[in-house]
Amino acid sequence: MKRFKTIDTARGMAIFGMVVGHMLNWWLTEADLWIYLVYYIILAPLGVSAFLFISGASTTLAYRKRLMLLNESDEFNMQTVRNVFMLRALILLGIALIYNIVGAFLIFEDLTWIWAWNVLQTIAFSLIIIWPLLKTSKILRIILGIILLIANQLIFEFLLPYQGQINFYGIIFYILFNPTHEYVILPFFSMFLLGTVLGDFLFELDQIENQDERRVAFKIHLIYSLILGFILIIFGILFQFPSFLEHAMFSSMVYSLGLILIIFSVLMIIEELEIIKIKKSHKFFYYYSYYSFSIYIAHNILYFLFLRQLTIITIWIPIIVTMIILSLLIRYIHKKIGPYASIKFGISVLSFVIIVRKKDKIKLILAN
User: Fold this and answer.
1) Largest alpha-carbon pair distance within the chain?
2) What residues contact 252, with CB distance under 8 A and at least 6 apart?
3) What distance in Å separates the CA atoms of residue 100 and residue 111, rounded to the nearest whole number?
4) What is the pTM of this model?
5) What is the full DSSP assignment across 248-305?
6) What are 155-171's pLDDT values in tens digits?
7) Residue 126 in 3-state DSSP?
């Protein structure tokens, strides 16, 4: 089955934007921090939503590949696939909680950050929740995704008065929305869920062997995606304006989803029509996608480099130099170490070995 380069490009772009955004947040002086706030309001919801959306699509594609392998092998069954899938999610959740504990004690000095919705924790819970839904219809997942987006805003507004209180509603608020400016589970699981629908469309598209029929189907999906994207952007902006700039709120998520569909469609045009012919191994954003979890954890050392020392004038050269060095380093690591520097690959291997207990039967996990 074909590996869609657009998935790697879109996910890599999201990680690249995250690193730049964090450097703005960490390095700017208090007086110039408003620049980061502008960046956060305009681009952060899009980047976060895109990463979860693309992760949902890639999860579905990996799931479909494993089902194809099951049909070709007598040694694996659906229970094995499910156990490997769930163990991967639990290992990722463990890493996320360790990440939170370190941050709570060393950076924030706030024990409430032991439970915080970072991208690792959000994806881990999304993977745990999504398993029974992967067998359901695309329509059901779309409806459920919309319901979750609406429910998130209603639940948030109901629970907000109880924030910080030691009672039932205060605890529920803490579980669902701590902290409110991060990757809180309800809206971003919704994006993950809607991304699985895209994954199914891509899988079905890839199964069309006749190239003429494939191109026709691709154009039809592309037109629908672009139209839907523009409709969602307009609706997200106009619905309760200007709430589309508020993090993780209904309008913001709808607006972000529209932008994601348009950007993804453009990237698919470039890939399918081969407008730009570049080998995958040489694509800039491919490295950021391949090592996404590793970069997410490792880039935190940049926090201490110029903490609150740079102004709106002096910050740009350090950011550009840092991103050039980081990009070259990632490419070098990819050539010398390859998948062994990828946390995602390590989790896949570990979970597979634990469940199957046969290291030589690695074919299943390589369907990632």
Assistant:
1) 64
2) 45, 236, 243, 244, 245, 246
3) 9
4) 0.89
5) TSHHHHHHHHHHHHHHHHHHHHHHHTTSS---GGG-HHHHHHHTHHHHHHHGGGGGGT
6) 999 999 999 999 999 99
7) helix
Handedness of CA 320, 325, 329, 331 (dihedral sign): positive
Residue 228 near residue 86 (C-beta atoms within 8 A): no
Q: Answer yes or no: is pLDDT of 62 > 80.
A: yes
List 28's β-bridge partners, or say none. Answer: 310
Cα distances (angstroms) measured from residue 126 to each of 53, 187, 290, 298:
11, 11, 20, 22
Cα torsion angle, 208, 56, 51, 236, sign: positive
Q: What is the pLDDT of residues 328-367, one digit of tens each?
A: 999 999 999 999 999 999 998 899 888 877 544 545 444 4
**Which tokens belong to 314?**
């002096």
C-alpha 331/C-alpha 198 separation (Å) is: 29
Mutual orientation of helices 250-272 and 44-72 as an angle, nearest 10°? Answer: 60
- Tell me the C-alpha distance between 215 and 252, whole Å: 33
Structure tokens at 213: 């029929």
Cα torsion angle, 266, 268, 274, 280, sign: positive
Among the listed residues 288, 256, 292, 302, the one whose alpha carbon sits nearest the alpha carbon of residue 48: 256
CA-based end-to-end distance of the chain: 11
The rounded distance, in Å, linking the Cα atoms of 234 and 149 is: 17
The number of CA neighbours under 13 Å toward the Cβ of 308 is: 2
Q: Say whether 138 sits in a helix, a strand or coil.
A: helix
Distance CA(89)–CA(84), nearest Å, equals: 9
Higher pLDDT pick, 336 / 213: 336
